[in-house]
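Q: Give me the 3D complex with 5-amino-5-deoxy-1-O-phosphono-D-mannitol.
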Amino acid sequence: GKGGYAFYMEKEIHEQPDAIKDTVAPHIVDGKTSFEAEGIPNSFFRENQNIVVIACGTAMHAGLIGQQLFHTLANIHTDVAVASEFTYTNPVIKPGTLVIAVSQSGETVDTIEAIKYAKKKGAKVLSIVNVKGSTISDISDYCIYTHAGPEIAVASTKAYTSQLTVFYLLAIHAARLNGLVSEEESSKFLNELQRVPEVIGQILEKKEFVKKMTSKFLLSENAFMIGRGLDYSLLLEGSLKLKEISYVHSEAYASGELKHGTIALITDGIPVVALVTQSALASKEYSNIREVQSRGASMILITRESLYKDMNIPEDDTFILPEMDDMFMPFPAAVVMQLIAYYTSYTKGFDVDKPRNLAKVVTVE
Ligand code: M6R
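A: Here is the predicted complex, encoded as structure tokens.
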């Protein structure tokens, strides 16, 4: 059952602290990252210096965050491919190319076909899957399970943050074994990862505030979301959530790219969500916010206390995220974006769990 919540999606949003805890637990052994149980040797990320993530939808968006983690922490070149396009692009697969396939269901046909193609070309396949014993886990060389439990709502929430969790663990692991971060730094990162469940709990306590803030979307058929770096990747997912369950046409834009065309669409009253969590990028983001404000955008700001000053956006339109190390900010931000989509759909009276024209598992190409 829905455990007292109006929809499975709301229940699953609340299950994230446990999902993340359960996904982390098997991979910290004696205070260190471990993937021994999956048979992944310690030399793995020395031998595989080229990663291609293949996935669809939300799982692909998790891969975009994973890409930045592999780059930042482990210095491993990583591409992200939409599974349905992968086979059409003649992807370059050389010895030492590792495919990471990401899937909640483990049954998405586009992803299965891409895996088969990559294997034929000689790639090793590591999958990140939620459903035990599914096709994708079967056909992969290695499988790391997310422990999100059954996800019923069509809109993916806890599977996404659990997939992110695995990417953090893998990137920290690779960086540590390749000598790019010290044991001390890596345990600092692991401590931060283990704080995520509690931090998500703090967001959930403020859900009524998100509900109020969300009213901006109700009258609009269009919305934009702007951010840089990890914030941009996260907004691609936030935007998909809003589209799929509330039917608001929403576009996530890399803030710097707006002025290359899309800013023509920013007119009076259009809702714009700005996500600003990365300290090093904040000052550039301020000027992008000014640009859209001066064209009359109706702003929602999601940021952190340390970056909020000078933003010039009223408190009522601002969600202040708890402070974490910059690299971990996608977690609390993800939950706010999920709540925004949830409340928009809920308040409009839609069937949140079963959006029109969508299936939980996509078994056609
Ligand atoms: O089961 P999968 O993770 O392979 O599914 C991939 C996508 O179909 C899925 O994430 C889809 O985008 C969700 N409905 C998004 O909420």
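A quick observation: The first helix runs from residue 8 to 14.
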